[in-house]
Amino acid sequence: MSSIEFFIRPAISTDASAMAVVALRSAHFLVDEVDSPESKRFFTLLSEAAMAERIASNDYFVVVATCQRMAVGFLTMRQFHLYHLFVHPEFHGRGLGRLLWGHIAPSLGSNRVAVNSSLCAEMFNRRLGFSPVGEPRSIVPPFVSMAWEGGSD
């Protein structure tokens, strides 16, 4: 099997479309009923327009991972909140999510980072060093609040 090289860089406005595709390709992992009104509202947060707004905003820090110049994953931070970490399903299990987190974690110092982890990502987030700080919530999508204590990874 040949080695895959990923490159991580700050996201730019032209990445918004590819980022939306990456996120929406994971939608079936996040919700039970993709056509429900609640799911459709949630998916607007993953749209190209929403991605473009976050890239342009000074309130968010967004990095994108590319493979052969194609966006295959991204991470979005808002202050000390892990807002999004998505990897295209075809690249799951190749270490890309850990690579994205490893790219940003050293800059976080000893600060506590929060994430509302989808239930399907809870074990992955535990492997990154996050711990649950609440009970799972049954909204769309269902999630559990988790925290990472800086320097503990």
Could you please describe the fold and organization of this structure?
With 153 residues, the chain is an alpha+beta fold. A hairpin with a 2-residue loop joins strand 3 and strand 4. It is globular and about 35 Å long. The model has no long low-confidence stretch (mean pLDDT 89).
Question: What topology does this entry show?
Answer:
Layout: E1 7-10, H1 16-25, H2 27-30, H3 37-44, H4 48-56, E2 61-67, E3 70-78, E4 81-87, H5 96-104, E5 112-118, H6 122-127, E6 131-132, E7 143-149
Antiparallel strand pairs: 1-2, 2-3, 3-4, 5-7, 6-7
Helix pairs in contact: 1-4
What is the structure about, briefly put?
It is built from six helices and seven strands, in the order βααααβββαβαββ. With about 150 residues, the protein is α+β, with helices and mostly antiparallel strands. It has a four-stranded antiparallel sheet with strand order 1-2-3-4, sandwiched between helices. Strands 5-7-6 form a three-stranded antiparallel sheet.
Molecular shape:
globular
Which regions contain 5 or more consecutive residues with pLDDT less than 50? none
Q: What structural category arises from helix and sheet content? A: alpha+beta
Strand-residue fraction? 25-35%
- Please compute the radius of gyration using only Cα atoms: 15 Å
Strand order of the largest sheet: 1-2-3-4
How is the main sheet built? 4 strands, antiparallel
Please trace the helix and strand order, writing H or E for each element: EHHHHEEEHEHEE
Distance between the termini: 30 Å
Helix coverage percent: 25-40%
Number of strands: 7
Number of helices: 6
**What is the typical, i.e. mean, pLDDT?**
89
